[in-house]
Design brief:
Strand order of the largest sheet: 2-9-8-5-3-4
Number of helices: 6
Largest sheet: 6 strands, mixed
Distance between the termini: 57 Å
Number of strands: 11
Length: 245
């Protein structure tokens, strides 16, 4: 098979010119990636017993402190709906949040949990304890487009914002806090383009008209997908507690 000598020569010239620019100007182009921490999980033996005795749990999503679920757009209902949709897809029977809160607010303070479960037709509560969209990630490393890892010069680093979400599970009948789960989202999951020059570096978007954007917020679409992914991860871990029969 004949090689495209013209195309090969153009590629070599392009790489050569890029190297010359780097040598004489000290400027580089590449990309950065941030690694999120592993999920943090604590669960009780009671949760395993519950999952094995309930094939299709009746669950309700609660947000005890809405102030701890602050987003840039303020459209928290979109995120709540995303969580509930993932639960429904997995076979959970999801109770209406507003109706659950109304029943609880009208109930006697001394109501026991067995009666609460009966009145609300719910087995467990999934509490969205906190959503933090102001988690800073920072790195002093970048990758060239040839795959070489380098350090930024002059002790420079770049940063961007990620997120984390914390859930907890409560088994209503015995008021057991049965699980506590935290999931993390790192910015630039597919890598972010970076411009590097002596004494400075900044993240940019591939579209040239957006150069200089510093990724100081988590975009709504990315946040919704993170919440969905975290919910799916939580469901997977709950399903893994079931004993195979």
């Amino acid at each position: 098979m004949l090689k495209d000598k013209g195309g090969t020569m153009k590629t070599r010239i392009s790489i050569f010119l890029g190297v010359l620019v780097s040598l004489f100007t000290g400027c580089y182009q590449g990309y950065v990636q941030f690694m999120p921490p592993e999920p943090e999980m604590v669960q009780t033996p009671g949760l395993k017993e519950f999952m094995n005795s309930h094939t299709s749990p009746k669950i309700v999503l609660r947000v005890p402190n809405p102030e701890l679920v602050a987003t840039e757009s303020g459209n928290n209902d979109l995120l709540y709906a995303a969580i509930e949709e993932e639960l429904i897809k997995a076979g959970f029977q999801v109770s209406d949040r507003a109706l659950f809160e109304e029943i609880i607010s009208r109930s006697d303070d001394k109501i026991n949990y067995v009666e609460m479960s009966r009145r609300t037709n719910t087995d467990m509560i999934l509490e969205l304890v906190k959503l933090d969209t102001d988690v800073a990630y920072k790195t002093n490393k970048f990758y060239t487009y040839e795959g070489e890892q380098r350090l930024f010069p002059d002790n420079v680093s770049v940063s961007a914002l990620g997120a984390k979400v914390t859930f907890r599970l409560i088994l209503i009948q015995n008021n057991e806090l049965a699980g506590h789960f935290t999931f993390h989202y790192a910015p630039c999951p597919d890598g972010c383009a970076v411009e590097v020059s002596p004494g400075s570096a900044y993240l940019r978007k591939e579209n040239p008209s957006y150069e200089g954007i510093s990724y100081q917020t988590v975009e709504t679409d990315a946040l919704e997908e993170f919440i969905r992914a975290a919910t799916r991860d939580l469901i997977f871990r709950l399903e893994s507690l079931r004993e195979r029969r």
